[in-house]
Design a protein that fits this description.
4 helices
Length: about 100
């Protein structure tokens, strides 16, 4: 049986980007994603249909990373974003505005 392919929409990609930022900043979140990805995705508002594999958590880049890096990790193709996600970790505790912060 072929695997289904599910593409996250813009809103879900922004939610997944917040989850990625939280996992990159907090080992407990990362471990929880590895143990129960569907449950954690649902807590961030992303529901993946049954039978569709959950997206993988991308590796955290070395050093500082840009908001564009975070958005691309979540599946977006972004142009014109500036800033660093390192400063976003304190906004709402888990990069609450990573989906739009610093974008024109």
């Amino acid at each position: 049986m072929a695997e289904s392919i599910y593409i996250l929409g813009d809103e879900d990609r922004a939610k997944f980007a917040r989850l990625i930022a939280a996992a990159w900043a907090d080992e407990d979140v990362k471990a929880r994603f590895e143990a129960e990805p569907r449950e954690l995705l649902a807590e961030y508002g992303v529901v993946i249909p049954e039978g569709v594999p959950t997206p993988l958590l991308p590796a955290r880049p070395e050093g500082e990373f840009s908001v564009e890096d975070l958005q691309v990790a979540a599946g977006a193709q972004v142009e014109g974003c500036v800033g660093t996600a390192g400063t976003l970790g304190t906004i709402g505790g888990c990069a609450g505005t990573a989906g739009t912060y610093g974008c024109a």
